[in-house]
Specification:
The chain has helices spanning 2-10, 25-33, 37-50, 54-65. It is mainly alpha-helical. The longest helix has 14 residues, at 37-50.
Length: 69
């Protein structure tokens, strides 16, 4: 798991300590994609409406996999 965390840190995919709502997953994804955290959250909610349930599996998985800043 440490190897995966190190790789994600190098790629800039981390959960920031600031600008969090729950775990910082959307804020981290937004930073990595170059968009604001609010836009990332909005995209997450819209994706939840299109593909119900899938994000409820993806979010906890990203929470575990994405290292903290």
């Amino acid at each position: 798991m440490e190897e995966l965390h190190a790789r994600l840190r190098r790629e800039g995919l981390v959960r920031p300590r600031s600008d969090r709502m729950i775990a910082g997953v959307c804020a981290g994804l937004g930073r990595r994609l170059g968009i604001s955290a609010w836009k990332a959250r909005l995209l997450f909610v819209l994706a939840l409406l299109v593909l119900p349930g899938s994000q409820l599996l993806v979010y906890p998985l990203l929470w575990i996999v994405m290292p903290e800043e």
